[in-house]
Amino acid sequence: MAENKKAVLRRIKAVKSTQQITKAMKMVDAAKLRRAQEKVLAARPYARELAKTLGRLVAAGAGANHPLLARQPEGAPTVAYVVITADRGLAGSFNINVIRKAHQAIQAESRPVKLICIGRKGRDYFVKRKIQPVMEWVGLGDNMTFALARSIVTKLVDLYLSGEVDEVRLVYTEFINAVSQRPVEAQLLPVQPAKGAEAHGQAEYIYEPSPEEVLNTLVPRFAETIFYQALLESKASEHGARMTAMGNATDNAEEMIAKLTLAYNRARQAAITREISEIVGGANALKG
C-alpha cells in the first residue's frame, strides 16, 4: 500500500510539472497570437482593395498579354502546390488538417504535380510518403515579413515563367478566430484579380503614366501580397491552435491531478483504517 501511495504521488508531481509547461506555452502563444492577429487584420483590406484595382485595370483592357495574368501552357500542363504548415507540433489538428487537404488535392489532380513545402511538418509528412518537394523552406520562425514573402514569390514566379509549371496553388490555414481555423486552397499564379461588380464601384480612375504601366507594377505586388497574407493567416492560425491545445492540456492535467489526489487520499484512508483495525484487534486480543 505504501508503494502504491508513493507511485500516485510521483504521478501527481509529474502531471503538475507538465501542467506548468502547458500553461506557460499557452501564455506565450496567446501573446504571439495577438501580434499575429493584428497583422492579419491589417493585411486583409489592402489585399482586397489591390484585387479590386487590378480588376478595374483588366476590365479596362490593360494587361491582356501580361505573363502573370494569363499564359497558354506549352505541352502538358503542370501544377505546383505550395503547402504551408508549422515547424513545430503541439498545435492540435492544425498541421494535419492542412496536410490532409493538400494530400487530397494532389491525389485528385489529373495533371503532373510539383510539391513545394513551407514548414517542417508538411515537408516531413510528404517525404515519408515518397513525395519529394522540389523546393522547401523550414525554420522561418514566427516573424513573417514581406521581404520573406517576396523572396519566396520570386522563386515561384521564376518557376512559372520558365514554363516548369502552368499554375501555382496555395494550401494554407485561414484564420477565423483563436479557436477556429479553416484549411483553404487558393490560386496564386496566374494572378486572378477581382471580377465583375466587385472590381468596378462608383468612382472612375485616371492612371498615370498609363494603365499598362500601373498594372505591370501592381501584378507582381499583388502576388506577393496574396502570399504574404497566406503566411500571416497560417501563422496566426498556428498560434491560435497551439494556445487552444495547450489550454485543453492544462485543463486535462487539472482533472487528472484531482483524480490522482482522490485516489491518493483513498489509499491513505484505507491504510489508516487498516492500521486502526489492527490496533483494535490487538487490544481486544490482549483483553481476552
UniProtKB/TrEMBL annotation:
<dbReference type="InterPro" id="IPR000131">
    <property type="entry name" value="ATP_synth_F1_gsu"/>
</dbReference>
<comment type="function">
    <text>Produces ATP from ADP in the presence of a proton gradient across the membrane. The gamma chain is believed to be important in regulating ATPase activity and the flow of protons through the CF(0) complex.</text>
</comment>
<protein>
    <recommendedName>
        <fullName>ATP synthase gamma chain</fullName>
    </recommendedName>
</protein>
<keyword id="KW-0139">CF(1)</keyword>
<keyword id="KW-0813">Transport</keyword>
<keyword id="KW-0472">Membrane</keyword>
<dbReference type="InterPro" id="IPR035968">
    <property type="entry name" value="ATP_synth_F1_ATPase_gsu"/>
</dbReference>
<keyword id="KW-0406">Ion transport</keyword>
<keyword id="KW-1003">Cell membrane</keyword>
<comment type="subunit">
    <text>F-type ATPases have 2 components, CF(1) - the catalytic core - and CF(0) - the membrane proton channel. CF(1) has five subunits: alpha(3), beta(3), gamma(1), delta(1), epsilon(1). CF(0) has three main subunits: a, b and c.</text>
</comment>
<dbReference type="Pfam" id="PF00231">
    <property type="entry name" value="ATP-synt"/>
</dbReference>
<dbReference type="InterPro" id="IPR023632">
    <property type="entry name" value="ATP_synth_F1_gsu_CS"/>
</dbReference>
<keyword id="KW-0375">Hydrogen ion transport</keyword>
<keyword id="KW-0066">ATP synthesis</keyword>
<comment type="similarity">
    <text>Belongs to the ATPase gamma chain family.</text>
</comment>
